[in-house]
Amino acid sequence: MRTTAVVVPRERFTSLPVSLRSLFRTIPDDVPVVVVEGASPAATRSELALLARERSFRLVSLPYMVKPNEARNIGVSMAETEYVVIADNDVEYEAGWLDALEHHALAYGSDAVAALTCEGPPAATIIHQAGGLLEAIRTEEGISLFDRHRLAEAPLAGATLPGIEHHVCELHCMLVRRSLLEELGGLDERLVSREQVDLALRLLVLEAKVTFAEDAVVTYMARDAFDPVDLRYHLFRWSDRHVVESLDAFESTWGVALDRDEIRYAWAAEHRLRGAETTYPRLRRILGKERFRRFVVARLERRVASEQLRARAGIVPAVPKPLARDLVERALENLVEATERGALTSR
To answer: Going from the N-terminus, what domains does the chain have, and what CATH number goes with each?
Structure first.
């Protein structure tokens, strides 16, 4: 086989068995699958044991909550195939998706291929991303960087899909040449936000070929409600502490400015709140937004953070190999020039 599938947490525990059943229905039995999870509830681990009787896969179970990039690095390190698919554990798959990714990589000589990712439920209805683009502008503070989803929130039916060339493969589901990840030295485990942009920049610096396969259709089940056990992982992964560490690491690596307040408060804080609101809708109605945020979300986030600081004591995040500064600066300057010319808008 050419490809190993690596399945990792995104922001839930309980979505994993459902996602695996969808994966197994849509790939051949001999495709190697590595599943990495940490601190999943007993019920989820019991379901995984039942699934293992039906279909062989390699399971790595950790005693602590694991960040997505940590899990990705662990899973990729166990692969021996030419390609790996990196997929989140809340994705469902349409028939033929893996064949489409592999065929696309071979036909175009791609180093990385993005799937057409929808957002559900329902599956395969609304586009989340048909590939993505990086844009950069010069400001008084230096270079500011943005990523743009193509066709975000557009109906899939009747959509005119863009061309194959792009920059950003969302890590919901992407295929990548394993040797390229080894050349990079893995993914940056300090990041819980901007992971896909960090990888896109590294691929850009290395002049890797990144393409988009419109026939590889998957759905990120973003709109499913959270239950209390899932909310714990959600608040761990998107904790304010982890988001700030991500922003610091990203800006330090690339020497660019991000809209920190937008990412930290308008996106991450609101995303944590939305997860909690779907878990405890009645309590949210009774308390109102700000009291619910203060007395429910913030308290639970502190409790989970305290538990995981103890559970994860001594873990040092892996960082990819440094890239040559002149190559980084050249790639960023080229990106600024392309943005100024409007060369990216036609993609």
So the answer is: 1-347 (3.90.550.10)
